Amino acid sequence: MKKFIIGAAVSVLLGTAAHAETVGVSMALFDDNFLTVLRNGMQDYSKELKGVTLQVEDAQNDVAKQQSQIQNFIASKVDAIIVNPVDTDATAAMSKLAADAKIPLVYVNRQPVNVDSLPDGQAFVASDETVAGTLEAKEVCRLLGGKGNAVIMMGELSNQAARMRTQSAKDVLKTDECKGISVVEEQTANWQRTQGSDLVTNWLSSGIEFNAVIANNDEMAIGAIQSLKAAGKDMKDYVVAGVDATQDALAAMQAGDLDATVFQDAAGQGKGALDAALKLVKGEKVEKKVYIPFQLVTPENVKDYVAKN
Fold first, then answer.
1. In this predicted structure, what is the pLDDT of residue 9?
2. How far is Cα 220 from Cα 131, in angstroms, rounded to an integer?
3. Could you tell me which SUPFAM superfamilies the record lists for this protein (predicted)?
4. FRET label pair with 249: which of 117, 122, 153, 210, CA 20 to 30 Å apart?
C-alpha cells in the first residue's frame, strides 16, 4: 500500500514537472506607461496558471540588447519567447533565431515587419493599428465639423504602429467629410510626453496655426496639452486626441483637456500573448495574427474605461 501511495505521489510530481513552462519575455522598454500595463497584465495572468514561470527582461529601447536577450533565452532553453520589439524592422533576425532553435515565439503589441511570413510556431498578438488611427481621426473630424488645421504627432518611426496609425489618420482626412481639414505639420515625438510638449512649443513659437492635435499615443497628446496650457491657450479652442486610454489620459479627459482617445487593451494583449505562447508550446494551432479590438473613448463614455488600463 505504501509503495502504491509513494508511486502515485511521484507520478503526480512528474506530471506537474512535465507541464511546467518557462517563458522568456523581452519588453522594448519598462519605462513606458502602456507597456507597463501590458507587462503587469501578463505577469498577473501567469500567476493564475499553474507551473508557468515568466522571465521578464527590459531591452531599454536597444535593438542589440533585445537580440542578446533572445539569444540568452534560447541558451537557457526556455519553452517559449514573447517579444515586444524595440524596432519592428529588426524582427526577421529574431524570428530566425527562435525558428532555428525550435522555440515558439510570439510578438506582442508591435507588428513585426515579417508578420506575413512568420515561420511555423510563431504568432503576433496586438490590435489592428489602422483601426486606432481611423477611430481617432474620425472623432477629430466630427468634433471639428470637417474643417480646420491639424498637426500630427508620430511615434517612433521604426515602429509599424506609428506608421500605420499616421497613414490611417491621413486616409480619413482625405474623405469627403473630412477633406476640409489640412495637416499643417507632422513630426515624431517618439511616443514621449516631454518630446511631445517640446514639439508643440516649437510649433507655437514658429507661428504655426492649428486647432487640432492628432497624436499616435496618449503620452504625446498629454505633452501637447501641457504645452498649450503653458502658452496660455484655451483648451476649448483645440481638439486633442491620442491612443491607448492610459490612466493619465483618462484623467486629462475627465479634466476637460483631452477630447478623444482609443482604448487599447494592454492587459488583454499581455494575456493573449501568453495564451498563444503556451498553446504553441503544446503544439496547438494558433492564428498567425490575433487581434484584440480597439474602442473609441470620449467624455461621454470615459467612466466605462477608468478601471481598464
1. 36
2. 19
3. Periplasmic binding protein-like I
4. 210
If we measure between CA atoms, which residue out of 202, 203, 193 comes closest to residue 225?
Answer: 193
| Burial state string for 189-222 with b = 16 or more CB within 10 A and e = fewer than 16 | bbbbbebbbebbbebbeeeeebbbbbbbbbbbbb
Question: What is the 8-class DSSP label of residue 123?
Answer: E
Its pTM stands at 0.79
- For residue 136, name the pLDDT band (cuts at 50, 70, 90): very high
For the domain covering 21-127+265-292, report its CATH number: 3.40.50.2300
- For 269, the grid coordinates are 494583449
Rounded-to-integer distance, Cα 127 and Cα 291, Å: 5
How many angstroms separate the CA atoms of 137 and 172, rounded? 6
Q: Which three cell numbers stand for residue 149?
A: 488645421
Give domain 129-264's CATH number out of 1.10.3720.10, 3.40.190.170, 3.40.50.2300, 3.30.420.240.
3.40.50.2300
Amino acid (one-letter) located at 133: G
Q: Domain ranges in the chain? A: 21-127+265-292, 129-264
What is the reported pLDDT for 20?
82
pLDDT at 17 over 90: no
Residues 135/138/144/150 CA torsion (nearest 10 deg): 80
What gap in Å lies between CA 91 and CA 302, rounded to an integer? 36
The answer to whether domain 21-127+265-292 and domain 129-264 are alike in fold is yes
Cell 501578463 found at: 42
